[in-house]
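General statements about sequence and structure are easier to judge against a single worked case. No coordinates are needed to read the tokens, only the vocabulary itself. The sequence in question and its structure tokens are set out directly beneath this paragraph.
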Amino acid sequence: MRPRRPPLAHPLAAVFDRAVDSLSAALNPETTRHYRGTVRKFLTYLGDAHPHVGSLDQLRRDPHILGWMSCLRSQRPPLATASCINVLIHLRSIFQELAWTQSLPELGHLIRRQDIPRLPKRLPRSLTAQQDQLLDQEFLRRNDLGGNVFLLIRHTGMRIGECADLSYDCLRSTGPDQWAVHVPLGKLQTERMIPVDRFVCELVQRLRFFRSLDPLPADGRLLARPATKHALVRQLRDYLHQVCHSLGLSTRLVPHQLRHTYATQMIRSGIGFPALMTLLGHTSPDMTMRYVDVALTDLRREFDLARSQPRHLVPQPKTVASLRAGLDGVIDVLLSAQYVLEMFRRALPNGASRSSLARLSNRLAKILAEARKLPPT
């Protein structure tokens, strides 16, 4: 167990702790822990850089807050933008609470909106088709607890923390031969029902079987917890890292990419925006719009590809009876093969098979291009 840190020795520690206690009434325990960590970091900096500050009315934007933000930016290794945003938002909320409870309105203006950096716009990090196929095959081959957990995450789009909280009876019947997984309150304090197919139902049954073999007493959850939820999540993350290492994947993958892959697959398959927002448990349309951006990126790529590569026009093949002799006949055969391959590929749903056939079709297009450069025979 992690050793408990000693209480912070600073004159403002008690008043900041009371402010966090007041805020925590509407926060989950994990968020409260981050608030307390922010207080410790700020007061540690304040005690080291400005030891004369002992009361709230001594705090000033310059040099105390601006110095603190400069300290954040100068950390080595550098603090991630998302972490910097969280720290500043937490401290600003605490100052706003103190401004109201201590009747010091100037505290509410120590951290301004423009002080908080914006996250760079990034598309969701989905798995590539090859990574998705390799992991899916490996999880199925292993058929162990970790493999079934990550298959469940991949085919429902839930967060790893939500999966750790699933109840033993999470699989619910919604109609004749229709099933859904009930996802409990999670990161955004929302719960939802995710429609699932027979494969996911089998995954849940396998996880129930593994739970029945675990020596820990039944606690109503689908996954046994060796100690805490965080310990379980850490074990699952380590399992995924080991699987990636065994497959020789060069990129360090994280569980959340399975959720991104599920969402990206849904939007590419044509699911409506409100339905996707509900499936993912998003509370803001802006969160779901990132996946629409993925679809637009795909559209642009396909548009550029259609203009640059004639295979997307799918030339009509010549009949076998009219094949020409020599190199011209070889080109005719390649065109016929390309046409049949492309027609079959377009009939497939999005997935690993369709992606593999697309790569094969690209190779045929390049072979055709090289064949046309050869001198006639």
Q: What stands out?
A: The mean pLDDT is 83. Residues 148 and 206 are 7 Å apart (CA to CA). The longest helix spans residues 285-308.
